[in-house]
Amino acid sequence: MNKRRKTRQVKIGGLICGSDSPVLIQSMCSVRTEDIEAVVKQVKELEDEGCDLVRVAVPNFEAAGNLAEIRRRINMPLVADIHFDFRLALEAIKQGVDKIRINPGNIGGEARVVEVLEAAKKHGTAVRLGVNSGSLEHHLWKKYGRPSPEALVESALDWIKIFEKNDFNNFVVAIKSSDVPETVESYRRVAEKCDYPLHLGVTEAGLPAYGSVKSAVGIGALLLDGIGDTIRISLTADPVEEIRVAKSILKSLHLYNKEPEVIACPTCGRIEIDLIKMTREIDERLKKIKKPIKVTVLGCPVNGPGEAREADWGIAGGRGKGAIFRKGKVVKWVEEDKLVDEFMRMVEDEEA
Ligand code: SF4
Q1: What pLDDT, on the 0 to 100 scale, is given for residue 273?
Q2: Ligand 1 mean position to 136 CA, how many Å?
Q3: Which of ligand 1's atoms lies nearest the C-alpha of 271?
Q4: Which residue's C-alpha comes closest to atom 1 of ligand 1?
Q5: What distances in angstroms separate CA 188 from CA 108, 198, 249, 344, one per listed residue?
Q6: What is the pTM of this model?
Q7: Hey, what CATH class is 261-351 in?
């Protein structure tokens, strides 16, 4: 895997987004920002699952007016999502959010964008500079005929110049498309042309099964290139699900070090136990271990030592008895009904 692309460091509340920090996981509340209790409750659920920063929609002044209280009651940086009305951005900044997301192309012209940047500068607020088909400028539609990667990147680079001209550098860049090849191409192009941190996402990815795959393909391809500093998985689902998928993508690329990775065999005709049940139980019980250990769960001991060689721990079911592996070597045979409990006791003794 390529090394992370070197970026500037952008300060978002108490977090740093950029190549010197881990890739940050973010999500967006699905409840109304007008309902403070519902937002705070959902942010807590996202925090428990491992979310690093959270965004809320700010469609009106009632929502904007709640931001200070929401910020006070949560433990992670708060991002205000603003479209069309620059006054909402000014209010969000005044309320003390850590970052605002704007698509400068739909906020009412350069003068208003500059006004927002001045306020952000004064309050130390970070900005996400977003570009998508909906915010693409008229002249770029005319030039390219459609929101192609070339058009979206040109729009982003034009806005980056304007931000820089106004001495504003505390921002990340996002170029959104629901098309995976175009998303990857756009980010690769913009990554070559600037050194700002990049917010990755495949927008409107869909229901969890397809949306997770689509996101993993697009975001995974970029992360393998070393591109990407914060990710959001857009799923048509409870946002907690987005965090689970984000963690899995990062984990599969060795970019997440706060929990174990469970590798399980696909099962075959040799299986003698209920492997799916056993894997689910182990996966759940391992959640309390906040380390990136590798655990292999196998249906039978036939290939156990070989398949568990790369893992820190391994467990293999069998007829009546199962084996526990440590670094590829069998260290214990245990009665099947006590196998999972004994395995977890040994893992916890050493790793917890
Ligand atoms: Fe089959 Fe055993 Fe391999 Fe699982 S570990 S796939 S049950 S041979």
Answers
A1: 87
A2: 52
A3: 7
A4: 268
A5: 28, 10, 19, 43
A6: 0.93
A7: alpha beta
